[in-house]
Amino acid sequence: MPAEPAATTAPPPQTLSANQKYCHACAAVLDARAELCPKCGVRQSEPAPVGGRNKTSAGIFALLLGGLGVHKFYLGKPVQGILYLLFCWTFIPSVIALIEGIVYLTKSDAEFRAKYG
After folding, report:
1. What pLDDT digit, counting tens, does each position of 64-99 carry?
2. Run of H or E including 65
3. For the chain, how many helices (H) and strands (E)?
4. Please, which residues have CB within 8 angstroms of residue 51's CB and are 6 or more apart in sequence?
5. What is the pTM of this model?
6. Which residues pair with 21 in a beta bridge?
7. How far is the C-alpha of 25 from the C-alpha of 77, rounded, in Å?
């Protein structure tokens, strides 16, 4: 009787330590700080944060709808947004929101992400 061929199985996936990551292009295991994959040479860009807030959107909300506190709700600060709504008839929130909108738009992306991320 002919011998049955041995079943081929894929090796188990390698578990990564805290200071390792996979290459986005070839799936090679890299150091977490690597900017280029030594195997394929592809630059390792950081993926965009999921659910991250955009400074341009926050700035436009503050400039256009800031008197109603829309930008505060967008940035995940509902209590401040409610305060803006309660006092919107005084136009004070509109003035503050105008200043905040300019501040949001003039911050660098890294500064905005660090504070409102």
Report:
1. 999 999 999 999 999 999 999 999 999 999 999 999
2. helix 55-65
3. 5, 2
4. none
5. 0.58
6. 30
7. 38
Angle at alpha carbon of residue 52, lines to 51 and 57, rounded to 5°: 110
Contacts of 69 (CB under 8 A, 6+ apart): 80, 81, 82, 83, 84, 85, 88, 93, 97
CB of 75 closer than 8 Å to CB of 64? no
Domain spans of the chain, in order of start: 16-47, 55-116
For residues 51, 52, 55, 60, the Cα torsion angle rounded to the nearest 10 degrees is 10
Could you give the CA distance from residue 62 to residue 98 in angstroms, rounded to a whole number? 6
The span from the CA of 66 to the CA of 59, in Å, is: 9
Please provide the DSSP assignment of 69-106 as one string.
THHHHHTT-HHHHHHHHHTGGGSHHHHHHHHHHHHHHH
